[in-house]
From TrEMBL:
Name used for this protein in its record: C-type cytochrome
Taxonomic source organism: Cryomorpha ignava
Residues covered by the Cytochrome c domain: 30-125
InterPro entries the UniProt entry points to: Cyt_c-like_dom, Cyt_c-like_dom_sf, Multihaem_cyt_sf
Keywords: Heme, Iron, Membrane, Metal-binding, Transmembrane, Transmembrane helix
Amino acid sequence: MKHISKEHSTVLKLLWVAVLVFGVAAFSGVHAQDGEKLFKQNCSACHKVDKDLVGPALKGVQERWAGKEELLYEWIKNPAKVKDMGDPYVDKMLAEWMPKGGLMAAQLVNNEEIDAILKYVADWQPAVAAVPATGTADGAAQAPGAAADTGISAVWLIIVAFILLVLIFSLVGVRSSLTRLNSAILDSEGEEVAPALSSGERFKAWMWKNKTFVAIISILVLVYFTVLGYDALMGIGVYQGYTPEQPIKFNHTLHAGTNEIACVYCHSSALKSKHAGIPSANVCMNCHTGINEGQSAEGTAEIAKIYDAIGWDLESRSYTGEEKPIKWVKVHNLPDLAYFNHAQHYVVGEIECQECHGQIQQDYTVAGQFAPLTMGWCIDCHNNTAVRMDGNGYYDEVHERLVDHGKEELKKYLEDGTISVKDLGGWECSKCHY
C-alpha cells in the first residue's frame, strides 16, 4: 500500500482494513473458504478477530455498523472521503483509534470479498486447547506409566566409553604380562622360545589368520567412505539451513506467528508473480508509523533501522526525504536453468508457504533456507502432492477434458482417489526447464 498523502504520513494504512470488510451484505461470488485467506492478506497486520491490536477487535463489527452497510462499503473504498462526511459513528471511531495509528488507505477489495471476510469473522470461534491425558510439571502430555525421562545423557555415554577403554587397555596389558611370563617359564625349562614379534608383525599375522573377517571389514569401510564421499559431492550447491545475517533482524515468529500477519501481506508479489518479492519499507511503515517500540530493546533498535532507511523522523513524525537502501541478503537461490512460479504454487496449487519454507511462524526469527531445493526434492513433491481440483476454476478445463476424452486415463488416476501433479504433467522437463 502507498501512503495517502504527505499530510497523512503518520497513517497506519491497515488500521481499519478489517473494519472495511465487515458488513451484513449477503455472501455470494467468493467462496466461503476464501474469507480466512482474504482476512489474513488484508486485515491481520493490524487486527485480530477476538482482541485489540493496532486496530480494534473485529468480532461484533457487524453490529457496530448495523444500519450503515452502504457507508461501510464506501469507507472501505475511500476512507478519506467518509472521514469528512461528519457521520457521528465514524467521528467517534476516528477519535478513538486514529491517534493510535492514523487513517488507513483505500483497500482493493470488492463487495464479494468483503462479504467473504464478514462470513469468516462471523463464524470464527476460538481454538480449543487439547487437554493432555496426564499432566506433567510443565503441562506436557505423558502416557500413563511412561518414564519421566528415557533419554541417556551425553555425559553418561562418555563415562561408559571411558570405562570400556580402560578395560580394553587393561586386558591388553594382562595379555602382554601373561605372554612374557609364559616365555620366561619356557626359557627356564630349556625349551625354545619363539622370537618376539613387533606390533606390526603381530597385526599382519592376525590379519592373515583372519582373512575372511578382515575382507568383510575392509569392504564395509570402503562402502562407508564411498557413501560419505557421494554425500559430500551431492551436497555441492545445496544450501539447506543457510541463514545469512541481514541488515534488519526481521522477526518472523513475532509477525507471522504472534501477530498472525499473512505471509502475502508483506510478500504480496507471490499472488501474481513468479517471485515472492522483498517488501519495501513503505509496507513496514503501514504498521510502524504508529508502533515505534518493540517487545525488547533489540526490537526497538531494529524498528529504528527502518526509520533510518526510509527517512522517518520520529519526533516530528514526518519524512525527511533522506532515504537509504536496505541491503537485504538473498536467501533462496535457484539455478538459472530452473523455473519456479510462486503464484502458480500458492494461488493455483493452494500450497501453503510452510510447505517450502517450514513453520516460519513459530520456528524462525531471521529466515533461513528450510528445504534443500534440489531437483529430487521438487520431483518428490510433484509425485506425492494431490491436486486440489474441487472448487478450483483453474482445473475445470483439465477435469472436463479428462471426463470427456480420457475416461480410461481418469479411471487409472483415480484408483487411489487422487490426481497428482505428476499425473498432470508435473514431471515433464519443460515444466521447470526452458
